[in-house]
Specification:
The complex is a heterotrimer.
Chain A: H1 7-28, H2 33-58, E1 61-64, E2 75-78, H3 84-106, H4 112-131, H5 135-153, H6 161-190, H7 195-205, H8 208-226, H9 235-241, H10 244-270, H11 281-301, H12 306-326, H13 337-367, H14 378-381, H15 383-397, H16 403-417, H17 421-446, H18 462-477, H19 481-498
Antiparallel strand pairs in A: 1-2
Chain B: H1 2-9, H2 11-29, H3 33-55, H4 77-107, H5 112-116
Helix pairs in contact in B: 2-3, 3-4
Chain C: E1 3-5, H1 8-26, H2 30-56, E2 60-69, E3 72-78, H3 80-103, H4 110-129, H5 133-151, H6 157-188, H7 205-222, H8 231-234, H9 240-249, H10 251-267, H11 269-275, H12 278-298, H13 302-323, H14 326-357, H15 368-371, H16 373-387, H17 393-407, H18 413-439, H19 454-472, H20 480-491
Parallel strand pairs in C: 1-2
Antiparallel strand pairs in C: 2-3
Helix pairs in contact in C: 1-2, 1-4, 2-3, 3-4, 3-9, 3-14, 3-19, 3-20, 4-5, 5-6, 6-7, 7-10, 9-10, 9-14, 10-11, 10-13, 12-13, 12-18, 13-14, 13-18, 14-16, 14-17, 14-19, 14-20, 16-18, 16-19, 17-18, 17-19
Classes of the chains: A mainly alpha, B mainly alpha, C mainly alpha.
Chain lengths: ~500, ~120, ~500
Amino acid sequence: MKLTDQFPILIIEVPLIAAALMPIIGHWRRKWCMPFATLALSITSMIGYYLMLAVNKSGPISYHVGAWKPPFGIEIYFDHIAAFAFIIALFGLLIVIFSKNYAEHDLEEEKIPIFYTLVMLTLTGMIGFTVTGDLFNLFVFMEILSLSGYALIAISGQMLTAMASFKYLLVGAISSLSVLFGIAFLYSITGTLNMHDMAKMLEVARAPHVASVALTLFVLGFSVKAALFPLHIWLPDAHALAPSPVSAILSGLTVKMGIIGMIRIFFVIYGVHSAINVMPIMEILAWMAAATIVLGAFFAFFQNDIKMMLAYSTISNIGYIVLGLSMAPFDKSKVAYALVGSLVHVFNHAMIKVLLFLCAGAIIYRTGLRKLSDLQGIGKKMPITLAAMSIGVISIVGIPPTCGFTCKWFIALGAMEGGKSLFAALLLFGALFIFAYYIKILNTAYFREPTEAIANVKEVPLSMLIPIVILAAGCLVLGAGTLGYVPIKFIEPAAMALLGR
Amino acid sequence: MTFLSKLGTNFNYVISTLLFVIGLYTIITKPNLIKKFMGLNIMETSVFLAIVSIGAVRDGKAPIVESATKVQYVNPLPQALILTGIVVAVSTTALALSLMIKLYEQCGTLNADKLKEFE
Amino acid sequence: MQEVVDIRPLLAPAISIICAFLIFWKGENTFLRRFFSLSAAVTKWIIVLSMFPVSLKGIIFTYELLPFAPGISLNLRVDALGMFFSMVSSTLWIITTVYAIGYMEGEHARKRFFAFFALCVSTTVGIAYAGNLFTLFIFYEMLTISTYPLVIHKETPEAMKAGRKYLFYTLTGGAVILFAIVMTFYLAKTTTLSQNGILSIEHGVHTLTLLFALFIAGFGVKAAIMPFHGWLPSAMVAPTPVSALLHAVAVVKAGVFGIIRIVYNVFGVSLMKELGVGPILGWVACITIVCASIMALLQDEFKKRLAYSTVSQLSYIVLGAAILNPLGALGAIVHIVNQAFMKITMFFVAGSIARKTGKKNISEMQGIGYKMPITMATFTVASVGMMGLPATAGFITKWYLLNGALEMKPPQIGFVIVLLLSSFLNASYFLPIVYRAYFVKPLDGDIAVGEAHWTMLVPCIICALYIVALGLFTDLPFVPIQLARVAVEQFFR
């Protein structure tokens, strides 16, 4: 037995064990928490990278926990979608590096180990969620990531954060229950919890009504997690009031779990053939997504708080992703442009939004200010941070040659292909609207004289700059050229596999 | 008649759905956060009930193999699942309660309408 | 058609980008800033010029730059039309840089100004060399972004408002274009520009008409076709070199260049004729020509009048493209350079006057010809050119356009009338300025005002001389009109 055979479970275990050890280390030497978290996440990302390459080379890896053969035991199914676990670990690593100064600066000392514990836990939950092949396991990981997420929002103990966290908890718990109820229904008609087994059983089960009730519950539950309109109400407060590194995790990575959940449900369990056609769920989702794009952008436009603005923009971008998903063609004659675009955006948006929230965090760290109107001329004081932020802004608007463009191109093309040019138009004009509010950030940062309040502001320390610069470079490099091909090359087979081709 | 008889055989689902809705109603209508959370607990219970009842078999025995004779066993898997589910529910409750303590310390009230004024 | 792979199409835009970064890096130093700007301008001009003789033979340069995703890539391709446009912009970049050095003396944020100025020209050449619609779009959007800091250079509320308006118009146009490009890609499975068009009538008349309308609406924003022209007069708040650049070289010309590309390289002449959208586009252009001229008459602010005049002149080019015969196309392409030189002279003059006397309104410019005789002489040359009198560049355009309109089947007398009427209107809004400058005694004669600094005067003179040269020596080799002929041959093969 080789060690590499155990990698699919280790990618969950390493951060989980690190999370468990964190309080002990924190009790012993508080300073060592951050290096330890960095170490654990580096190992995790390396494992993730190895697995990703392996998947790319020889297809999905199935790992049987405790050597119990599926469908009886829990299966870890590391396919192309699960490779997102690598992204989670990698971005988690960058966020942890960024957090060093934040934690020392903004948190009470005894909270530092708790902070890292929770970060590691929520990352574990996300990694587990993406790699698991077992539906109930999915639910458990979802709860792990959600619970630690709720706690992270309120960790600073400031006013309102507890309220935002509670709001998120209430809505999040309802959505989790809705998913669990859906699982219960599916289990009752298929008698299995393994996703692939369930897909097979669902075809023979011939219970379209139960299946569609379950589907509705899943969509409802995951829509809340992904903050799809009108189930987005919890998001702005939670993402804006959380500490910036946490906002980056929540906005860049956690909301994607709703999307990954939907992907698993739609494409793995219900599959191309069966109950998905019982009701026009895709149609409904497409319209919800369209409304999400427009309203997210609309509300973002009126925000003065940078983090609030970014939070609403997350909502809008989730709209893009779901729009792409909903237009995935089950018809074999068509190229799956929309699905590819949507999957690319899952990755790209994670990168861009982590970058933007970290930049916002850097600004708040140095100035203590978060209102756009207070930050005039900040670009002259913090040139590197703001340059990175500008790249992020241009990427999220989707101006070529940054990475944000690729997905818009693909989703628009997919909409054309599906005969839904209206959505393509909506998408492209939505991007315009987004630019309208982001230009406010650039204007304030560069084209105003610095005010008194930020006269003595300096550039942030190196540990904050490194993650920011890496992410900004990623936004530029992964948009075009040979490197720009990399995500697409990886994601195309993923989309094909999802569509069963 | 068929509808009623179907309702009779599937009464476990009916009851758990009913409980689910009652919980949801409580969450939406009650202004007090603790009551909201009780609503959530009712919802949790309803889902657990649904899952446990899936595995139930009339006159089934506990799935411990004692003899080679064929006996009807209760499906143990749902019960195992629910144990996990209960653990999750308990931790959610603990977290929510601690958040509420924090909120009460800061704002002096747990009434959702009054808490709005602090925003 | 012969095609050669060559790195020069990449070098030309790259030089200005490098220059922009150098200025960002070391631009605080006045000498280095000027050195970078001028040397990049000259180097680029030489590179473009070195491709000129080959391009004149009808050979096409290509360079595959970056693949993006399956089916889309950054791709450079220099045909005669692209060469023509890049010649115009790189030549004018040198002149404008010299002028800007003089004009911007003592202004704030010069580093930012010159850096974005360089970026702006770089993207313009990129547009000229774009080998497919996708590349065209990328450079087109980059042009929008890089001109924005120039428009709001003064950072006053008025400038910010103009900047917002500019972005709103141009980005909306960009979104429309992107939508149309997606549609084209979906229909034709490619966006590579081809000499005879990439679409065919099989895609359905209604779809194609809609597509054409979308493209025209998108590019029409920068080409300032009415009613999409609103951003242009308000963008006048920018410093004068920027106005000159925006209105004569880069932005508006990118718009009309896009329209020419759409008409000839995406749809192609035969498809355009089958669709019958040419005359409609022609009439839209005619309406713009007349309305904008009338609007220009009503303006008192010098630069605003010039702006409306630009709106009107641009539609000449659109009209020429819409005529769909070799003469019309020739007129359109030639007018790209003619209008550029004439309008840039006028803007230089307006800027010199504003710098020297602080006067921005025409009604205050009594007797300015006594104080700044050379400057006003160049203005006179430019306005005579605008009217289209023989021996100036403007005459050539009008001649080809009129002949083109008459050669249409059936001859479009309406176009002819509009062109003649427009000459009359041009005269009636430019001549009063000349009259006021020379024949009305200055009110404040005691204030001594002389000519502007040589860096501002010399560009005016060069441009004015060139206007005359273009009008007189059309058949000499190495004069742009030869290149325009090659371009037309490529379209109507």
